[in-house]
Every structure is written in structure tokens, then in C-alpha cells.
Amino acid sequence: ACSTAPPRRTGRRSRSARPTGRGAADRERLIPRAELRAARARKASRPDWRAYLASWDRQQEEFNPDRERRFNVMFEVLRAQVGPRFTALDLGCGPGSLTQRMLRRFPRARSVAVDYDPVVLRIGKGALGTLGGRLTWVDAKLGRDGWTQSLPVRRFDAAVSTTALHWLEPPELRALYRDLHRLLRRGGVFLNGDIMPWGADSPGPRRIAQKVRKARHGKTGRPRFNGWERWWARAEKDPFLRDAFEEQRAREAEHPHGEPPSLQVHRDALRRAGFREVETVWEDLDNRVLMALR
User: Which residue ranges in the chain fall short of pLDDT 70?
Assistant: First the structure.
């Protein structure tokens, strides 16, 4: 804001004292018409990255109606464990939904957001930018040897993830958790909001959960993913994302299919990595928030 007050109006201005321009409108008149039309056309044809992010959120909420509630639990735990000012690592960040909410909730926090999918990274960077320098995007494959070398800092107060780590196979997950233990400061916290089903060692809860899911979602026992499929189909037709999809295929960064790692796999991997306490802090059947304390 300008610290100089505007001059006081003392009477009718003479014609020569009137402003000669009206800001952007006058500047546009100085640009050749053809060049101005071309600039407007480029702006009009540019994707609305924020709309992409908003539609991502809608299709995620379609199959996970407790998504915002799960976010809120994670933020409450963050405040209780590390306070309002921290640096967090967002694992499998996608286009930045979790980080966006976290930095809005904690204005003095910072986030390093990591993903390997060039499509969602393109959308996230376009929609959010750096959020005033508090957000850093990192293109790296979680669990791969050396992925931590891409991080701009070496120590974090917290790590978070939501609807992401179920894509990892158990060996990748164990490697990731070992890396994470080294990255977190003592007293730091890791929060993972995701689908973590009961394993074969818990046949009773597993059977009951499947019955409840069928009552909720029909005979398949699975929520509908129509919105998810439509979102990706629409994005793939966008010429501004064509090169990102080509890179996605070259990296084999598409989302795999299969049974996600069980709750017990996560617990065992975190404990073996060195985390001192591992507990579930919120759950609805196999939709959980798992907390690990460093």
C-alpha cells in the first residue's frame, strides 16, 4: 500500500489537469490491435488450472465423502504435535489439495510437495504456484533410491499423505518409511490418510467390512469411480497436457491396480523403520488416518 495520501480535491480541475489515461485500458490502446487480439486469444485458450483443481476435488469427494473430515483430523493432530509453524513434506501430493488446505489452515507453515505424475504436477503448479513462497514442488518417485536428493531441505517437522500411498507395493513402502524416519526431526509426526484394509490376519473384521461396503455401495462393495475416470479422460484431451501425458506414459507413472497394502503392512513397516509409536487416530472401516511418531 502507498504511504502517501492522495491529494485533496480543492475544486473543479482544468481540462489540462485531468488524467490522460485509465490504467490498463489506456495501455491496451497503445498496443497494435492485431497483437492485442493475439494476446487475448492466448489468454482465453489457456487452461483454467484452478478449475482443474476444483474438479479434481469434486471427483475425489464422490468416492470419499469423508475426505474433508479426514483432512481436518490430520490438521488437528498437526497442531497438537508440532504447533502452528512447521515445515511439512507432502508425499504423493497430486495437484496439491492437501497442501492447499494445510497452508490455508496454518499461515506460518511451509510445504514441500512431492509427486512423480507430470500431469497432476502441471495442474498443481498452474493452480497454486508457490503460495507466496511457502510451497515448493518436487518431481520425484517415492521409494526410489536417491529420491530424497531432490528435496530442498533435509529435515521436516511433519510428513503427510492422503489417498496416495496405496499405490505403492510393500517393498517400496518399506523403503519410503525408512527414508521418512531419517527426514523427520525427533518429535515429528507422520500422518497418512488412505485406504488401509485389514489383512489376512484379521479375517473377522475384513469380512464384516466387506458386508458393510456392500450395504453402502451395492454388490461390488466399492464406491463408484465414474468421476475419476471422466476427469482423466477429459484431461487427456487437453492439448496443454499432451506432453505431460506422454511423459507420464514414458515414466510408467499411471496408477496401478490391485489390493492396497494392509493396515498391518503399514504398521510393521513404520515400526521397523524406527518410529516409536504407530496408531490409528481416525477410521471408518478401512478408510483411516494412521499416525506415526518419530
Answer: 1-45, 220-223, 253-257
pLDDT at 61: 93
Of 16, 159, 21, 11, the residue nearest 82 (C-alpha): 159
Cα separation, 289 vs 291, in Å, equals 7
The C-alpha cell at 12 is 473543479
pTM of the predicted protein model? 0.82
Give the chain's length.
Answer: 294
Three state DSSP letters for the chain:
CCCCCCCCCCCCCCHHHCCCCCCHHHHHHCCCHHHHHHHHHHHHHCCCHHHHHHHHHHHHHHHCCCHHHHHHHHHHHHHHHHCCCCEEEEECCCCCHHHHHHHHHCCCCEEEEEECCHHHHHHHHHHHCCCCCCEEEEECCCCCCCHHHHCCCCCEEEEEEECCHHHCCHHHHHHHHHHHHHHEEEEEEEEEEEECCCCCCCHHHHHHHHHHHHHHHCCCCCCCCHHHHHHHHHHHCCHHHHHHHHHHHHHCCCCCCCCCCCHHHHHHHHHHHCCCEEEEEEEECCEEEEEEEC
Report residue 227 as a C-alpha cell. 468421476
Beta bridge partners of 278: 292
Exposed / middle / buried, residue 91 (Cβ in 10 Å: 0-12, 13-18, 19+) = buried
The C-alpha atoms of residue 192 and residue 288 are separated, in whole angstroms, by 8
* Cα dihedral 288, 142, 234, 61 in deg (nearest 10): 10
